[in-house]
Amino acid sequence: MQVSFLVLGLVTVVHAWPVALDLLRWVGAAYLMWLGIKMIATSGTDTRLRKTAKISDWNAVKEGALNSLTNPKSLLFMFAFLPQFVDPTAGPVWLQLLVLGSIQKLAGIVSLGSVAMASGTFGNWLG
């Protein structure tokens, strides 16, 4: 999502309207507080005796996406890091940003996916 924000020119919006980044920070903070309240509300019970509710894959994806979208650090990284590698004379800026951002996201998916798969395999091996 951060790549699409970057490609659509929302960097310009953040530069022109700095309150947008503050608003994103507050939304992210509210979301983290909500997650913390959920954790506190379910604490105090013996986790060995408590059955955990299975969440669907779709709900896990939605929660992860919301967490990622409200994380100002990842947006700031994309906004600060990728534009320095763009050459306006080499072609459409939006296309360059799309390619660079997609490469960055693909590398993250491969590396974190490998860690997840290895963790699952190792967890099964441990029993």
Chain-wise SSE layout:
Blueprint: H1 2-7, H2 10-16, H3 19-42, H4 57-69, H5 72-81, H6 93-126
Proportion of helical residues: over 70%
Helix count?
Answer: 6
| Largest sheet geometry | none
Ends distance: 37 Å
- pLDDT under 50 segments (min length 5)? none
Number of domains: 1
Proportion of residues in extended strands: under 5%
- Outline type: flat
What is the H/E order?
HHHHHH
User: C-alpha Rg, in Å?
Assistant: 19 Å
Strand element count: 0
- Overall pLDDT metric: 79
Determine the structural class based on helices, strands and strand pairing: mainly alpha
Quick tags:
mainly alpha, transmembrane, membrane, 127 residues, homoserine transmembrane transporter activity
Can you offer a commentary on this structure?
This protein is an all-alpha fold. It has one domain. It is 74% helix and 0% strand. It is built from six helices and no strands. The chain has helices at residues 2-7, 10-16, 19-42, 57-69, 72-81, 93-126. The model has no long low-confidence stretch (mean pLDDT 79). Keywords: Cell membrane, Membrane, Transmembrane, Transmembrane helix. GO terms for molecular function: homoserine transmembrane transporter activity. It comes from Klebsiella michiganensis.
